[in-house]
C-alpha cells in the first residue's frame, strides 16, 4: 500500500537524480553548443515519457481488469528506465563523438541527424531482440510474470521510440532555443 508507494517514489527519484548527474558529468566535455546539464535534463524528460506510458496503460488495466501495481511493476519501471537511458546515451554519445571531431563544419541539427542515422539500426535491433526474448517469456513463461513482462514490453517499446525520436529532437530544439535567445 502506502509503504510500497513511498519506497517506489523514493527509488525512482534516486534513479532519476543519479541518471541526471551521470549524464551531466559524462557529457561535460561536449558542452558546446548545448551545455551538459541539458543533456541530463533531456534524458530525464525522455525517461518521464518512458515511464508514464506503461503507468497509464496499467492504470487502465487496473480499472478494467483489476490489475494491481505491485513490486514487480516497480521493478519493471526501474528496468525500463535503465534500458531507456542506455539507449538515449548511445545516441548522445555518438553526437558527442562527432562534436569532438576536428574541423567539424556541420550545423548542429545535421550533426544530430547524422548521429541518429548511425545509431538507429543498433537501437532498433537491440530493442527488438529484447522484445522477442521477453515475448517468449510472456507466451511460454509463468503466469505470475505476465504483468511484469507486459510492463517491460510496453516500456521498452516506448523507450526505443523516445531515444530515437524524442531525445534527439529535444536536443535540437534546445539548441534552436539557445540560438534565438543569443541573437
From TrEMBL:
Q: Where is the Protein export membrane protein SecD/SecF C-terminal domain?
A: 1-174
Name the principal localization, coarsely classed. Answer: membrane
Q: What's one GO BP annotation on this UniProt entry? A: intracellular protein transport
Cellular compartments per GO CC: plasma membrane
Q: Which InterPro entries match?
A: SecD/SecF_arch_bac (IPR022813), SecD/SecF_bac (IPR022645), SecD_SecF_C (IPR048634), SecF_bac (IPR005665)
Cellular localization per UniProt: Cell membrane
The record gives the membrane topology as: Multi-pass membrane protein
UniProt KW keywords: Cell membrane, Membrane, Protein transport, Translocation, Transmembrane, Transmembrane helix, Transport
List the GO molecular function terms. protein-transporting ATPase activity
Q: Which superkingdom?
A: Bacteria
Q: Where are the transmembrane segments?
A: 12-27, 39-61, 73-92, 124-141, 147-172
Q: What is this protein called?
A: Protein translocase subunit SecF
Amino acid at each position: 500500500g502506502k509503504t510500497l508507494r513511498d519506497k517506489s517514489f523514493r527509488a525512482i527519484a534516486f534513479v532519476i537524480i543519479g541518471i541526471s548527474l551521470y549524464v551531466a558529468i559524462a557529457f561535460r566535455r561536449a558542452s558546446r553548443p548545448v551545455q551538459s546539464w541539458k543533456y541530463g535534463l533531456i534524458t530525464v524528460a525522455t525517461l518521464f515519457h518512458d515511464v508514464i506510458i506503461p503507468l497509464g496503460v496499467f492504470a487502465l488495466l487496473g480499472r478494467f481488469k483489476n490489475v494491481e501495481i505491485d513490486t514487480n511493476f516497480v521493478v519493471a519501471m526501474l528496468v525500463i528506465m535503465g534500458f531507456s537511458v542506455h539507449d538515449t546515451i548511445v545516441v548522445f554519445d555518438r553526437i558527442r563523438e562527432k562534436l569532438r571531431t576536428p574541423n567539424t563544419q556541420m550545423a548542429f541539427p545535421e550533426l544530430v541527424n547524422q548521429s541518429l542515422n548511425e545509431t538507429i539500426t543498433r537501437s532498433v535491433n537491440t530493442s527488438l531482440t529484447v522484445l522477442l526474448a521477453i515475448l517468449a517469456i510472456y507466451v511460454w513463461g509463468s503466469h505470475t510474470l505476465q504483468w511484469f513482462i507486459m510492463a517491460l514490453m510496453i516500456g521498452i517499446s516506448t523507450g526505443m521510440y523516445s531515444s530515437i525520436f524524442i531525445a534527439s529532437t529535444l536536443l535540437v530544439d534546445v539548441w534552436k532555443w539557445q540560438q534565438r535567445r543569443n541573437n
